[in-house]
Amino acid sequence: MNKSKFVIEGLGRKKALSGTIAVRGAKNAILKALAASILFEDEVEFKNVPEIEDVRRMRELLVGLKQNPELHRDIAERLRASIVLTGPVLARYGEVTFPFPGGCVLGERPIDLFLDGYRAMGAEIVENDGLFIIKGKLRGAHIFFPFVSVTATETLMLAATLAEGRTILENAAMEPEIDSLAGYLNTCGAHIDGAGTPTLKIEGGGILRANGRPYITPPDRIETGSFLILAALAGHDVKIVDCEPKHSAALLSLLARAGIKFEIGESSISLRQGLTLPQAVSVRTHEYPGFPTDLQATMAVFLTQAEGEATILETIFDGRFRYAEDLARMGADIEVLNPHKVRIRGPRALSAQELEGPDLRAGLAYILAATVAEGTSVVNNAYIIDRGYLAIEERLSKLGLNIKREQI
Ligand code: UD1
Protein backbone atom coordinates (compact mmCIF):
# COMPACT_ATOMS: atom_id res chain seq x y z
CA MET A 1 0.00 0.00 0.00
CA ASN A 2 1.28 3.43 -0.97
CA LYS A 3 1.47 5.54 2.20
CA SER A 4 0.69 9.20 1.85
CA LYS A 5 -0.73 12.17 3.73
CA PHE A 6 -2.43 15.44 2.85
CA VAL A 7 -0.93 18.83 3.69
CA ILE A 8 -3.50 21.61 3.74
CA GLU A 9 -2.98 25.33 4.06
CA GLY A 10 -5.91 26.62 6.09
CA LEU A 11 -7.94 29.61 4.96
CA GLY A 12 -9.05 30.71 8.42
CA ARG A 13 -12.28 32.63 8.05
CA LYS A 14 -11.63 33.67 4.44
CA LYS A 15 -14.32 32.52 2.04
CA ALA A 16 -11.79 31.90 -0.69
CA LEU A 17 -12.98 28.83 -2.60
CA SER A 18 -14.73 29.25 -5.92
CA GLY A 19 -15.40 27.35 -9.11
CA THR A 20 -17.06 24.15 -10.17
CA ILE A 21 -16.65 20.70 -8.67
CA ALA A 22 -18.11 17.51 -10.14
CA VAL A 23 -19.52 14.68 -8.05
CA ARG A 24 -18.40 11.13 -8.89
CA GLY A 25 -20.34 7.89 -8.88
CA ALA A 26 -21.54 6.68 -5.49
CA LYS A 27 -19.25 4.30 -3.63
CA ASN A 28 -22.16 2.70 -1.83
CA ALA A 29 -23.96 2.11 -5.13
CA ILE A 30 -21.17 0.73 -7.31
CA LEU A 31 -19.91 -1.70 -4.65
CA LYS A 32 -23.32 -3.37 -4.48
CA ALA A 33 -23.79 -3.29 -8.26
CA LEU A 34 -20.42 -5.01 -8.70
CA ALA A 35 -21.52 -7.67 -6.21
CA ALA A 36 -24.75 -8.11 -8.19
CA SER A 37 -22.76 -9.04 -11.31
CA ILE A 38 -22.66 -12.59 -9.83
CA LEU A 39 -26.38 -12.86 -10.67
CA PHE A 40 -25.66 -12.51 -14.39
CA GLU A 41 -24.99 -15.02 -17.10
CA ASP A 42 -23.31 -12.50 -19.40
CA GLU A 43 -20.92 -9.59 -19.01
CA VAL A 44 -22.09 -6.45 -17.21
CA GLU A 45 -20.70 -3.05 -18.12
CA PHE A 46 -20.46 -0.37 -15.41
CA LYS A 47 -20.43 3.34 -16.11
CA ASN A 48 -19.52 6.37 -14.00
CA VAL A 49 -17.35 4.16 -11.80
CA PRO A 50 -15.19 6.01 -9.25
CA GLU A 51 -11.76 4.33 -9.28
CA ILE A 52 -11.52 4.41 -5.50
CA GLU A 53 -9.71 1.90 -3.30
CA ASP A 54 -12.88 0.11 -2.14
CA VAL A 55 -13.87 -0.52 -5.76
CA ARG A 56 -10.44 -2.10 -6.36
CA ARG A 57 -10.92 -4.34 -3.33
CA MET A 58 -14.37 -5.42 -4.55
CA ARG A 59 -12.90 -6.30 -7.97
CA GLU A 60 -10.22 -8.40 -6.28
CA LEU A 61 -12.92 -10.25 -4.35
CA LEU A 62 -14.85 -10.90 -7.57
CA VAL A 63 -11.74 -12.27 -9.30
CA GLY A 64 -11.15 -14.61 -6.34
CA LEU A 65 -14.73 -15.87 -6.56
CA LYS A 66 -14.09 -17.18 -10.07
CA GLN A 67 -12.15 -20.07 -8.50
CA ASN A 68 -14.51 -21.02 -5.67
CA PRO A 69 -17.42 -19.59 -3.64
CA GLU A 70 -15.20 -18.25 -0.87
CA LEU A 71 -14.47 -14.60 -0.11
CA HIS A 72 -10.77 -13.76 0.19
CA ARG A 73 -10.35 -13.40 3.93
CA ASP A 74 -7.86 -10.51 4.14
CA ILE A 75 -9.84 -8.33 1.75
CA ALA A 76 -13.28 -9.11 3.15
CA GLU A 77 -12.03 -8.27 6.61
CA ARG A 78 -11.26 -4.75 5.37
CA LEU A 79 -14.50 -4.03 3.52
CA ARG A 80 -18.02 -3.94 5.00
CA ALA A 81 -19.57 -4.15 1.53
CA SER A 82 -17.97 -7.59 1.08
CA ILE A 83 -20.93 -9.02 2.97
CA VAL A 84 -23.19 -8.03 0.06
CA LEU A 85 -21.41 -10.59 -2.13
CA THR A 86 -22.62 -13.41 0.08
CA GLY A 87 -26.24 -13.04 -1.13
CA PRO A 88 -25.61 -13.49 -4.85
CA VAL A 89 -22.91 -16.14 -4.35
CA LEU A 90 -25.13 -18.25 -2.10
CA ALA A 91 -28.14 -17.82 -4.39
CA ARG A 92 -26.19 -18.79 -7.50
CA TYR A 93 -23.84 -21.51 -6.26
CA GLY A 94 -25.74 -22.88 -3.26
CA GLU A 95 -22.89 -22.12 -0.88
CA VAL A 96 -20.63 -19.35 0.34
CA THR A 97 -17.76 -19.05 2.84
CA PHE A 98 -16.76 -15.68 4.30
CA PRO A 99 -15.21 -14.05 7.36
CA PHE A 100 -16.83 -11.44 9.55
CA PRO A 101 -16.70 -8.31 7.33
CA GLY A 102 -14.52 -5.33 8.18
CA GLY A 103 -14.74 -1.73 7.06
CA CYS A 104 -14.76 1.48 9.06
CA VAL A 105 -14.95 1.06 12.79
CA LEU A 106 -18.19 2.86 13.63
CA GLY A 107 -19.08 0.91 16.72
CA GLU A 108 -20.80 -2.41 16.45
CA ARG A 109 -21.60 -3.61 12.94
CA PRO A 110 -23.15 -7.03 13.44
CA ILE A 111 -24.37 -9.40 10.70
CA ASP A 112 -27.26 -11.11 12.52
CA LEU A 113 -29.86 -9.73 10.09
CA PHE A 114 -28.08 -11.40 7.17
CA LEU A 115 -27.76 -14.72 8.95
CA ASP A 116 -31.41 -14.68 10.12
CA GLY A 117 -32.44 -13.90 6.54
CA TYR A 118 -30.47 -16.80 5.08
CA ARG A 119 -31.92 -19.16 7.67
CA ALA A 120 -35.44 -18.00 6.82
CA MET A 121 -34.64 -18.70 3.16
CA GLY A 122 -33.71 -22.27 3.99
CA ALA A 123 -29.91 -22.14 4.28
CA GLU A 124 -27.78 -23.78 6.94
CA ILE A 125 -25.01 -21.90 8.67
CA VAL A 126 -21.87 -23.29 10.28
CA GLU A 127 -19.29 -21.09 11.99
CA ASN A 128 -15.79 -22.46 12.10
CA ASP A 129 -12.51 -20.73 12.95
CA GLY A 130 -13.94 -17.25 12.33
CA LEU A 131 -15.44 -18.26 8.99
CA PHE A 132 -19.12 -18.60 8.15
CA ILE A 133 -20.00 -21.47 5.84
CA ILE A 134 -23.53 -21.21 4.46
CA LYS A 135 -25.17 -23.81 2.26
CA GLY A 136 -28.57 -24.44 0.79
CA LYS A 137 -30.89 -23.90 -2.12
CA LEU A 138 -32.65 -20.65 -1.31
CA ARG A 139 -36.41 -20.28 -1.39
CA GLY A 140 -38.49 -17.15 -0.94
CA ALA A 141 -39.38 -16.03 2.58
CA HIS A 142 -41.25 -13.30 4.42
CA ILE A 143 -38.67 -11.33 6.39
CA PHE A 144 -39.34 -8.44 8.73
CA PHE A 145 -36.16 -6.56 9.67
CA PRO A 146 -36.26 -5.61 13.36
CA PHE A 147 -34.31 -2.50 12.39
CA VAL A 148 -33.35 -0.87 9.14
CA SER A 149 -30.08 -1.99 7.55
CA VAL A 150 -28.83 -0.81 4.18
CA THR A 151 -26.54 -3.72 3.39
CA ALA A 152 -28.89 -6.39 4.79
CA THR A 153 -31.68 -5.06 2.56
CA GLU A 154 -29.41 -5.10 -0.49
CA THR A 155 -27.94 -8.51 0.23
CA LEU A 156 -31.23 -10.28 0.79
CA MET A 157 -32.77 -8.49 -2.19
CA LEU A 158 -29.98 -9.90 -4.38
CA ALA A 159 -30.28 -13.38 -2.86
CA ALA A 160 -34.05 -13.34 -3.40
CA THR A 161 -33.61 -12.51 -7.09
CA LEU A 162 -32.40 -16.06 -7.80
CA ALA A 163 -34.34 -17.83 -5.01
CA GLU A 164 -37.32 -19.99 -5.69
CA GLY A 165 -40.62 -18.19 -5.13
CA ARG A 166 -41.55 -14.86 -3.60
CA THR A 167 -39.62 -12.95 -0.94
CA ILE A 168 -41.06 -10.04 1.01
CA LEU A 169 -38.69 -7.75 2.88
CA GLU A 170 -40.40 -5.45 5.38
CA ASN A 171 -38.89 -2.47 7.20
CA ALA A 172 -36.37 -2.37 4.37
CA ALA A 173 -33.90 0.48 3.86
CA MET A 174 -34.98 3.10 1.29
CA GLU A 175 -31.59 4.50 0.26
CA PRO A 176 -31.46 5.66 -3.39
CA GLU A 177 -28.60 3.24 -4.08
CA ILE A 178 -31.07 0.38 -3.51
CA ASP A 179 -33.55 1.88 -5.92
CA SER A 180 -30.86 2.37 -8.53
CA LEU A 181 -29.74 -1.26 -8.27
CA ALA A 182 -33.26 -2.72 -8.27
CA GLY A 183 -34.18 -0.60 -11.31
CA TYR A 184 -31.19 -1.92 -13.22
CA LEU A 185 -31.77 -5.55 -12.23
CA ASN A 186 -35.40 -5.26 -13.35
CA THR A 187 -34.28 -4.20 -16.83
CA CYS A 188 -32.18 -7.40 -16.89
CA GLY A 189 -34.94 -9.85 -15.98
CA ALA A 190 -35.40 -9.47 -12.21
CA HIS A 191 -38.81 -8.83 -10.60
CA ILE A 192 -38.27 -6.46 -7.70
CA ASP A 193 -41.15 -4.30 -6.61
CA GLY A 194 -41.16 -1.47 -4.09
CA ALA A 195 -37.48 -0.40 -4.04
CA GLY A 196 -37.34 3.01 -2.36
CA THR A 197 -40.22 2.05 -0.03
CA PRO A 198 -40.08 0.03 3.22
CA THR A 199 -41.57 -3.09 1.58
CA LEU A 200 -39.82 -4.99 -1.18
CA LYS A 201 -41.49 -7.83 -3.06
CA ILE A 202 -39.18 -10.00 -5.10
CA GLU A 203 -40.28 -12.82 -7.39
CA GLY A 204 -37.31 -15.12 -7.68
CA GLY A 205 -36.41 -16.41 -11.09
CA GLY A 206 -33.64 -17.43 -13.41
CA ILE A 207 -30.23 -15.95 -13.96
CA LEU A 208 -30.13 -12.35 -15.25
CA ARG A 209 -28.93 -11.11 -18.62
CA ALA A 210 -27.51 -7.63 -19.21
CA ASN A 211 -27.68 -7.91 -23.01
CA GLY A 212 -25.26 -5.02 -23.33
CA ARG A 213 -27.21 -2.67 -21.05
CA PRO A 214 -24.80 -0.87 -18.72
CA TYR A 215 -25.30 -0.10 -15.04
CA ILE A 216 -24.90 3.65 -14.59
CA THR A 217 -23.63 4.54 -11.13
CA PRO A 218 -25.73 7.33 -9.59
CA PRO A 219 -23.94 10.38 -8.14
CA ASP A 220 -22.53 10.04 -4.64
CA ARG A 221 -24.87 11.90 -2.29
CA ILE A 222 -22.33 11.81 0.55
CA GLU A 223 -19.73 13.45 -1.67
CA THR A 224 -22.35 15.98 -2.78
CA GLY A 225 -23.17 16.74 0.84
CA SER A 226 -19.52 17.08 1.84
CA PHE A 227 -18.90 19.54 -1.00
CA LEU A 228 -22.01 21.51 -0.01
CA ILE A 229 -20.76 21.81 3.56
CA LEU A 230 -17.28 22.76 2.33
CA ALA A 231 -18.79 25.44 0.08
CA ALA A 232 -20.93 26.72 2.96
CA LEU A 233 -17.84 26.94 5.17
CA ALA A 234 -15.21 28.31 2.84
CA GLY A 235 -16.71 29.14 -0.55
CA HIS A 236 -17.95 32.37 -2.05
CA ASP A 237 -19.18 31.08 -5.38
CA VAL A 238 -19.09 27.32 -5.71
CA LYS A 239 -21.13 25.18 -8.09
CA ILE A 240 -21.49 21.47 -7.48
CA VAL A 241 -22.33 19.63 -10.69
CA ASP A 242 -23.22 16.07 -11.79
CA CYS A 243 -25.19 15.53 -8.59
CA GLU A 244 -28.77 14.56 -7.77
CA PRO A 245 -30.08 17.40 -5.57
CA LYS A 246 -33.13 15.50 -4.39
CA HIS A 247 -30.89 12.93 -2.70
CA SER A 248 -29.50 15.73 -0.51
CA ALA A 249 -32.87 17.08 0.65
CA ALA A 250 -32.28 16.51 4.38
CA LEU A 251 -28.95 18.34 4.35
CA LEU A 252 -30.27 21.15 2.15
CA SER A 253 -33.18 21.77 4.50
CA LEU A 254 -30.81 22.01 7.48
CA LEU A 255 -28.41 24.29 5.63
CA ALA A 256 -31.33 26.52 4.62
CA ARG A 257 -32.34 26.75 8.27
CA ALA A 258 -28.77 27.67 9.11
CA GLY A 259 -29.09 30.59 6.70
CA ILE A 260 -27.07 29.24 3.76
CA LYS A 261 -28.34 30.36 0.37
CA PHE A 262 -28.21 28.09 -2.62
CA GLU A 263 -29.76 27.59 -6.01
CA ILE A 264 -30.85 24.16 -7.13
CA GLY A 265 -30.60 23.11 -10.76
CA GLU A 266 -31.50 19.80 -12.36
CA SER A 267 -28.16 18.19 -11.56
CA SER A 268 -26.34 21.03 -9.84
CA ILE A 269 -26.36 23.08 -6.67
CA SER A 270 -24.76 26.55 -6.48
CA LEU A 271 -23.85 28.34 -3.28
CA ARG A 272 -23.43 32.08 -3.09
CA GLN A 273 -22.12 33.12 0.24
CA GLY A 274 -23.68 36.00 2.14
CA LEU A 275 -21.76 37.88 4.78
CA THR A 276 -23.84 36.68 7.67
CA LEU A 277 -22.61 33.94 9.95
CA PRO A 278 -24.50 30.63 9.65
CA GLN A 279 -26.73 29.79 12.60
CA ALA A 280 -26.34 26.58 14.60
CA VAL A 281 -28.89 23.87 13.79
CA SER A 282 -29.35 20.62 15.64
CA VAL A 283 -28.99 17.39 13.70
CA ARG A 284 -30.43 13.95 14.13
CA THR A 285 -29.11 11.19 11.89
CA HIS A 286 -31.69 8.91 10.37
CA GLU A 287 -32.09 6.32 7.66
CA TYR A 288 -32.80 7.79 4.20
CA PRO A 289 -34.48 10.15 3.49
CA GLY A 290 -33.34 11.50 6.87
CA PHE A 291 -29.97 13.07 7.57
CA PRO A 292 -27.20 10.57 6.67
CA THR A 293 -24.89 9.34 9.42
CA ASP A 294 -22.11 9.48 6.82
CA LEU A 295 -22.34 13.30 6.88
CA GLN A 296 -22.42 13.56 10.63
CA ALA A 297 -18.70 14.34 11.16
CA THR A 298 -18.66 16.88 8.33
CA MET A 299 -21.72 18.57 9.81
CA ALA A 300 -19.92 18.76 13.16
CA VAL A 301 -17.17 20.77 11.46
CA PHE A 302 -19.84 23.08 10.03
CA LEU A 303 -21.31 23.59 13.50
CA THR A 304 -17.94 24.63 14.94
CA GLN A 305 -18.22 27.64 12.61
CA ALA A 306 -21.93 28.42 13.13
CA GLU A 307 -23.31 30.83 15.67
CA GLY A 308 -24.90 29.28 18.73
CA GLU A 309 -25.25 25.89 20.36
CA ALA A 310 -26.44 22.70 18.68
CA THR A 311 -26.47 18.99 19.33
CA ILE A 312 -25.95 16.05 17.01
CA LEU A 313 -27.91 12.93 17.86
CA GLU A 314 -26.41 9.86 16.16
CA THR A 315 -29.13 7.24 15.97
CA ILE A 316 -27.53 4.64 13.67
CA PHE A 317 -24.10 3.87 15.15
CA ASP A 318 -22.70 4.03 18.65
CA GLY A 319 -19.03 4.70 17.93
CA ARG A 320 -19.13 7.64 15.62
CA PHE A 321 -17.80 10.56 17.67
CA ARG A 322 -14.17 9.55 17.63
CA TYR A 323 -13.43 12.76 15.72
CA ALA A 324 -14.57 14.97 18.63
CA GLU A 325 -11.26 14.88 20.47
CA ASP A 326 -9.33 16.01 17.40
CA LEU A 327 -11.73 18.87 16.71
CA ALA A 328 -11.39 19.91 20.35
CA ARG A 329 -7.58 19.90 19.94
CA MET A 330 -8.07 22.29 17.03
CA GLY A 331 -10.01 24.62 19.30
CA ALA A 332 -13.62 23.53 18.78
CA ASP A 333 -16.02 23.73 21.70
CA ILE A 334 -17.35 20.19 21.42
CA GLU A 335 -18.46 17.84 24.16
CA VAL A 336 -19.49 14.21 23.84
CA LEU A 337 -22.54 13.98 26.12
CA ASN A 338 -23.01 10.21 25.63
CA PRO A 339 -22.17 7.65 22.89
CA HIS A 340 -25.03 9.04 20.79
CA LYS A 341 -24.93 12.76 21.42
CA VAL A 342 -22.47 15.65 21.07
CA ARG A 343 -22.93 19.32 21.81
CA ILE A 344 -21.10 21.95 19.81
CA ARG A 345 -20.89 25.69 20.47
CA GLY A 346 -19.71 28.07 17.80
CA PRO A 347 -18.21 29.89 16.21
CA ARG A 348 -14.69 29.03 17.35
CA ALA A 349 -11.49 29.72 15.44
CA LEU A 350 -9.71 26.45 14.65
CA SER A 351 -5.95 26.11 14.58
CA ALA A 352 -3.91 23.74 12.41
CA GLN A 353 -3.01 20.32 13.75
CA GLU A 354 -1.60 16.98 12.70
CA LEU A 355 -4.64 14.72 12.28
CA GLU A 356 -5.59 11.22 11.28
CA GLY A 357 -9.18 10.35 10.42
CA PRO A 358 -10.70 7.54 12.49
CA ASP A 359 -12.84 6.48 9.51
CA LEU A 360 -13.30 7.42 5.88
CA ARG A 361 -16.06 9.99 6.37
CA ALA A 362 -14.36 11.60 9.37
CA GLY A 363 -11.17 11.67 7.27
CA LEU A 364 -12.88 13.97 4.80
CA ALA A 365 -14.34 16.00 7.67
CA TYR A 366 -10.75 16.61 8.82
CA ILE A 367 -9.87 18.02 5.41
CA LEU A 368 -12.77 20.46 5.89
CA ALA A 369 -11.63 21.31 9.42
CA ALA A 370 -8.08 21.89 8.13
CA THR A 371 -9.53 24.16 5.42
CA VAL A 372 -11.17 26.52 7.92
CA ALA A 373 -8.26 26.38 10.38
CA GLU A 374 -5.47 28.96 10.67
CA GLY A 375 -2.14 27.50 9.58
CA THR A 376 -0.98 24.36 7.82
CA SER A 377 -2.48 21.03 8.89
CA VAL A 378 -1.44 17.49 8.06
CA VAL A 379 -4.05 14.78 7.57
CA ASN A 380 -2.27 11.43 7.83
CA ASN A 381 -3.41 8.12 6.37
CA ALA A 382 -4.64 9.38 3.02
CA TYR A 383 -5.56 5.77 2.23
CA ILE A 384 -8.62 5.87 4.46
CA ILE A 385 -9.90 8.87 2.47
CA ASP A 386 -8.88 7.29 -0.87
CA ARG A 387 -11.11 4.34 0.01
CA GLY A 388 -14.14 6.48 -0.74
CA TYR A 389 -13.10 9.68 -2.50
CA LEU A 390 -11.28 9.81 -5.81
CA ALA A 391 -8.16 12.05 -6.01
CA ILE A 392 -9.69 14.46 -3.54
CA GLU A 393 -6.63 16.75 -3.49
CA GLU A 394 -6.78 17.35 -7.26
CA ARG A 395 -10.47 18.16 -7.17
CA LEU A 396 -10.31 20.49 -4.17
CA SER A 397 -7.21 22.25 -5.57
CA LYS A 398 -9.32 23.35 -8.52
CA LEU A 399 -11.54 25.29 -6.13
CA GLY A 400 -8.46 27.17 -4.92
CA LEU A 401 -7.58 25.14 -1.84
CA ASN A 402 -3.88 24.65 -1.26
CA ILE A 403 -3.86 20.88 -0.60
CA LYS A 404 -1.04 18.53 -1.52
CA ARG A 405 -0.46 14.83 -1.24
CA GLU A 406 2.94 13.90 0.14
CA GLN A 407 4.42 10.42 0.30
CA ILE A 408 5.52 9.24 3.73
C1 UD1 B 1 -24.16 1.24 5.24
C2 UD1 B 1 -23.16 2.09 4.51
C3 UD1 B 1 -22.54 3.11 5.43
C4 UD1 B 1 -23.62 3.89 6.17
C5 UD1 B 1 -24.65 2.96 6.78
C6 UD1 B 1 -25.85 3.68 7.37
C7 UD1 B 1 -22.28 0.61 2.81
C8 UD1 B 1 -21.13 -0.20 2.33
N1 UD1 B 1 -22.11 1.23 3.96
O1 UD1 B 1 -23.41 0.56 6.27
O2 UD1 B 1 -21.73 3.98 4.66
O3 UD1 B 1 -23.01 4.62 7.21
O4 UD1 B 1 -25.16 2.05 5.80
O5 UD1 B 1 -26.45 4.49 6.42
O6 UD1 B 1 -23.29 0.74 2.14
N2 UD1 B 1 -27.18 -3.86 12.12
C9 UD1 B 1 -27.41 -4.94 12.93
N3 UD1 B 1 -27.36 -6.20 12.40
C10 UD1 B 1 -27.07 -6.42 11.10
C11 UD1 B 1 -26.84 -5.29 10.25
C12 UD1 B 1 -26.90 -4.02 10.79
O7 UD1 B 1 -27.65 -4.79 14.11
O8 UD1 B 1 -27.03 -7.57 10.68
C13 UD1 B 1 -27.26 -2.49 12.69
C14 UD1 B 1 -25.92 -1.76 12.68
O9 UD1 B 1 -25.17 -2.07 13.83
C15 UD1 B 1 -26.36 -0.32 12.67
C16 UD1 B 1 -27.67 -0.35 11.87
O10 UD1 B 1 -28.07 -1.70 11.85
O11 UD1 B 1 -26.65 0.12 13.96
C17 UD1 B 1 -27.54 0.14 10.47
O12 UD1 B 1 -26.49 -0.50 9.83
P1 UD1 B 1 -26.47 -0.74 8.25
O13 UD1 B 1 -27.52 0.05 7.59
O14 UD1 B 1 -26.42 -2.21 8.04
O15 UD1 B 1 -25.11 -0.08 7.89
P2 UD1 B 1 -24.02 -0.71 7.00
O16 UD1 B 1 -24.68 -1.56 5.98
O17 UD1 B 1 -22.96 -1.27 7.88
Summarize the structure.
Cell wall formation. Adds enolpyruvyl to UDP-N-acetylglucosamine. This protein is α/β, with parallel strands linked by helices and 408 residues long.
What name is given to the CATH topology of the largest domain?
Answer: UDP-n-acetylglucosamine1-carboxyvinyl-transferase, Chain
Topology, number of strands: 21
Number of domains: 2
**Measured distance between first and last alpha carbons:** 11 Å
Question: Which CATH first-tier class of the largest domain would you pick?
Answer: Alpha Beta
> How big a fraction of the residues is strand?
15-25%
What does this protein look like?
This protein is an alpha/beta fold and about 400 residues long. The protein has two domains: about 5-25 and about 220-405, Enolpyruvate transferase domain (UDP-n-acetylglucosamine1-carboxyvinyl-transferase, Chain); about 25-215, UDP-n-acetylglucosamine1-carboxyvinyl-transferase, Chain, CATH 3.65.10.10. Helix content is about 35%, strand content about 25%. The chain has 14 helices and 21 strands. A four-stranded mixed β-sheet has the order 19-20-1-21. A four-stranded mixed β-sheet has the order 2-12-14-13, with helices on one face. It is elongated and about 60 Å long. The termini are close together. The model has no long low-confidence stretch (mean pLDDT about 95). The structure holds uridine-diphosphate-N-acetylglucosamine. The site of uridine-diphosphate-N-acetylglucosamine (UD1) has 20 residues, from helix 1, helix 5 and helix 6. Uridine-diphosphate-N-acetylglucosamine binds near residues 31, 81, 109 and 114. Pathway: Cell wall biogenesis; peptidoglycan biosynthesis. It is found in: Cytoplasm. It catalyses: phosphoenolpyruvate + UDP-N-acetyl-alpha-D-glucosamine = UDP-N-acetyl-3-O-(1-carboxyvinyl)-alpha-D-glucosamine + phosphate.
